[in-house]
């Protein structure tokens, strides 16, 4: 049976456009027959912007309602679930409003500004009886699933060290100080914007390892802040998982181009290298060791699919809602909570406080 899910889109920025384009791909062309996504409404702070967005991103589809406020989308009875693509520091209030209107929610990463905001949202979602998920799209793509499968076979032995980095040159010297990537009021900086991706690889390779029994790692972090606005331009953090004797060495930067491989998973009997961009990589290599760590076999795996890759997380939302689940088994509330708790600790160790009033729950 096919489930039709009616999405309300909150905001009209860059990533909302990518998400809407992926939703509009005919599911049959990607061999999906149990889920149909319908973009039912788009809400912006300006009606004209919402209308322009529908015109340019959705070919002016007359069935999509344009609203000049987010509240009207939450109130629309023809909307089943809300996608939130606003800047980080608005996620909490936007998600709370959607949840209180009893809508299911898929909220962009990082899911909130801190762990306290997320705890409040999870309590509200439970009270409203709605599904809630952070839009950690990487977790649902075919390549990471294949990497996890290889790790699970045990052929490479235990993972010992994970290196992961996500960097991007945002030309920070020449962009307005109000750009979300460097504005502290919008949660600017490398950690909150890019940090979720090296972290998701550490979570997949180490935290999810059955021997780890979902034990939270300890953390040691360092942040280098830009004089421009005081946000972190470069952040590194090491996670230690004592139960499995493994570490993840993670980093992110907003003032340098990425380098490949973006992720290296070093195991006792081999190494996995994941090509950039690590949030939607299309290829990885596996090296198998013989005696003395000598490489005896190499494999390269390539992936391709229609669209940008955000439809995988959207499918997950619909299937979970259809099956009456409050959270996803792949990227559940525990993982978002771990992420936000670790980021709180990184910011504490790195001396990065958001401006007063930005964090709505502390
Ligand atoms: N999953 C992924 O691959 C990606 C995720 N992201 C995440 O998505 C979120 C948005 O990023 P991105 O799309 O690049 O951001 P943009 O700046 O392009 O868009 C943000 C949108 O949010 C709305 N908005 C509401 N309040 C504000 C405000 N005070 N200042 C600016 N915009 C506001 C605006 O829409 P309107 O005017 O219509 O109300 C705006 O267009 C971030 O949290 C980011 O981490 C970003 C890029 C990639
Ligand atoms: O999620 C993201 O992935 C790609 C980056 O360029 C972007 O800034 C970030 O928000």
UniProtKB/TrEMBL annotation:
It is an enzyme of class 1 (oxidoreductase). Signal peptide: none annotated. It comes from the Eukaryota. Residues 146-273 form the GFO/IDH/MocA-like oxidoreductase domain. It catalyses: D-xylose + NADP(+) = D-xylono-1,5-lactone + NADPH + H(+). GO terms for molecular function: D-xylose 1-dehydrogenase (NADP+) activity; nucleotide binding. Its EC number is 1.1.1.179. Residues 5-133 form the Gfo/Idh/MocA-like oxidoreductase N-terminal domain. Keywords: Oxidoreductase. Gene3D superfamilies: Dihydrodipicolinate Reductase, domain 2, NAD(P)-binding Rossmann-like Domain. Belongs to the Gfo/Idh/MocA family. This is D-xylose 1-dehydrogenase (NADP(+), D-xylono-1,5-lactone-forming). It comes from Mycena pura. The lineage of its organism: Eukaryota, Fungi, Dikarya, Basidiomycota, Agaricomycotina.
């Amino acid at each position: 049976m096919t489930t039709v899910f009616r999405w309300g889109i909150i905001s009209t920025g860059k990533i909302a456009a990518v998400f809407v384009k992926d939703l509009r791909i005919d599911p049959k062309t990607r061999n999906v027959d149990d889920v149909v996504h319908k973009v039912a409404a788009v809400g912006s702070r300006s009606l004209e912007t919402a209308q322009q967005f529908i015109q340019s991103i959705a070919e002016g589809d007359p069935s999509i309602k344009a609203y000049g406020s987010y509240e009207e989308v939450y109130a629309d009875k023809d909307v089943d679930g809300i996608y939130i693509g606003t800047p980080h520091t608005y996620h909490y209030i936007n998600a709370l409003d959607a949840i209180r209107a009893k809508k299911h929610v898929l909220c962009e990463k990082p899911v909130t500004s801190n762990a306290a905001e997320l705890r409040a949202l999870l309590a509200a979602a439970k009270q409203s009886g709605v599904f809630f998920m952070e839009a950690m799209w990487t977790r649902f793509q075919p390549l990471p699933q294949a990497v996890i499968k290889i790790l699970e076979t045990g052929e490479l032995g235990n993972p010992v060290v994970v290196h992961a980095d996500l960097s991007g040159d945002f030309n920070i010297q020449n962009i307005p100080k109000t750009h979300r990537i460097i504005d502290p009021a919008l949660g600017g900086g490398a950690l909150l914007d890019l940090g979720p991706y090296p972290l998701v690889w550490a979570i997949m390779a180490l935290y999810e390892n059955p021997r780890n029994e979902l034990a939270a790692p300890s953390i040691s972090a360092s942040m280098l802040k830009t004089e421009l606005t005081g946000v972190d331009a470069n952040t590194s953090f090491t996670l230690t998982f004592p139960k499995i004797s493994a570490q993840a060495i993670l980093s992110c930067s907003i003032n340098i181009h990425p380098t490949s491989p973006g992720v290296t998973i070093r195991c006792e009997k081999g190494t996995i290298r994941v090509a950039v961009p690590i949030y939607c990589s299309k290829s990885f290599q596996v090296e198998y060791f013989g005696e003395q760590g000598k490489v005896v076999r190499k494999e390269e795996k390539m992936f391709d699919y229609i669209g940008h890759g955000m439809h995988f997380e959207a499918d997950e939302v619909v299937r979970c809602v259809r099956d009456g689940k409050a959270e996803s088994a792949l990227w559940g509330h525990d993982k978002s909570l771990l992420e936000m708790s670790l980021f709180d600790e990184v910011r504490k160790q790195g001396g990065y406080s958001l401006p007063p009033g930005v964090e709505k729950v502390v």
